[in-house]
Amino acid sequence: MCGEKQFSEDRIRNGCRKIAKSRQGSTQGRLDSFFTVTGSLSSKRKEPEVKGPAKKKQKTGATPGKFKKAK
């Protein structure tokens, strides 16, 4: 090809190396095998955690800077 069609020998050699390298690699596996089905969780409900008494929030007055009264 180099003598007849005037192609660069370096480009042909690099292309052949690239093709040979791609043939050696393995193909990408299916995505279905990545996502496997796991066992189901127990059907029993968890017991609710016992928490201490909740603290009440104090009501605050108007928050400054949030809303301004129109004149």
Automatic annotation (TrEMBL):
Source domain of life: Eukaryota
Keywords: Endonuclease, Hydrolase, Nuclease
Location of the region described as Disordered in the Swiss-Prot/TrEMBL record: 20-71
Bias kind Polar residues: ranges: 23-42
Protein's name according to its UniProt entry: FEN1 endonuclease
GO MF, one annotated term: endonuclease activity
